[in-house]
Design goal:
With about 110 residues, the chain is an alpha+beta fold. It is built from two helices and eight strands; from the N terminus they run ββββββββαα.
Length: about 110
């Protein structure tokens, strides 16, 4: 578990795959739970300080360690793909805010998704 501040927009939910763009897009794993004030929460929004648990599910890779592979200076982002963007458009369009779509546009640039 690691303490984070959701500061760059969007919403973090359990099930979100996370990576570190500044470390050659190092894949950390999937956010499996979130807590705020020692209580389990469904999602984290911009400005909230939360604790997240990241699990390396099904990749067969060695777990990435806080302090060795990433630290408090790194920005963790959702690892998006063309398929995940299409899923957002198809099933979650009504839940997405204008800011959320702006973040997707920024992430598409970072991940070089056409």
């Amino acid at each position: 578990s690691s303490g984070i501040n959701a500061e760059y927009g969007g919403v973090l939910r359990a099930g979100t795959p996370l990576c570190v763009p500044s470390k050659e897009f190092c894949y950390l794993g999937v956010c499996t739970s979130l807590e705020m004030n020692n209580k389990q929460i469904e999602s984290a929004h911009t400005g909230q300080d939360v604790c997240i648990k990241i699990e390396n599910l099904g990749t067969g890779d060695a777990p990435k360690l806080y302090g060795r592979h990433f630290d408090e200076n790194d920005v963790l982002v959702s690892r998006i793909t063309r398929d995940s963007i299409d899923t957002l458009k198809e099933y979650f369009r009504d839940e997405m805010s204008k800011e959320g779509w702006k973040l997707i546009v920024e992430l598409k640039k970072i991940f070089e998704i056409l």
